[in-house]
Amino acid sequence: xxxxxxxxxxxxxxxxxxxxxxxxxxxxxxxxxxxxxxxxxxxxxxxxxxxxxxxxxxxxxxxxxxxxx
Length: 69
Prior knowledge:
5 strands, mainly beta, CATH 2.40.50, about 50% strand, 5-stranded mixed beta barrel
């Protein structure tokens, strides 16, 4: 399962959380974790290629596991 490291940001549009990865990607997080504004995290999950959201922040990452770094 892919793992991504980055910084969590609160979405300005529609609420929810975004993951801004070290590689410059932005994912909309779908699931629970230690998410707080500015938290550095490692998230394991799968990008859901078939889902869309009203906020259109980026691909939706279905969170399987997450931990603070």
